[in-house]
Write the structure tokens for this entry.
Amino acid sequence: MRTDAERAKALDELIDRQEILDCVYRYSRGVDRLDPDIIRSAYHPGAIDDHGIFSGTVEEFVEWVQVFHRERHEVHHHFIINHLCELDGDVAHTETYFIFAGKNTEGTPHSIHGGRYLDRFERRDGRWAIAARICLSEWAAGLGPLELPPVDREYPGTIARDRTDTSYDRPLRTRQERAAQAPVS
């Protein structure tokens, strides 16, 4: 049997986890509705989003993602699958699997692919939001490629079936954060 203090701590943890998961859902809804306010609400100001084909601040990302999807898709959906959340005080590291499906404006009729969002959440002034995100796109269905802009050859993270996978990195750091901490020669 739990003590009152143990129950209170467990309840606080459940509330934190739900607020974080709601933020992931809110992000997906915002991108699918192309609603900049909803997208922005999932991030802290100045947060970094590293999507591989795009890497920059949330302010830049909100602009980019709307143009990207408007040009390439008549409609699209982000499906959130597995979600793992590790809490550590006012920081949380999450790994969220997603499937993306889109009806293309040209080329092959549909795009379907899957991957993972690796997020570092922070609670600031009582509000959980994304401080850093790495998007790892890991597979695409055999419906033909969607023409994408050239991809930066440095992938935003390591995809591996062992502990070298970026999902194990603590703290999670985007390419910009890693570059900022690199020793200057």
Summary: DSSP finds four helices and six strands in the chain. Confidence is low (pLDDT under 50) at residues 145-153. The first helix runs from residue 4 to 33.
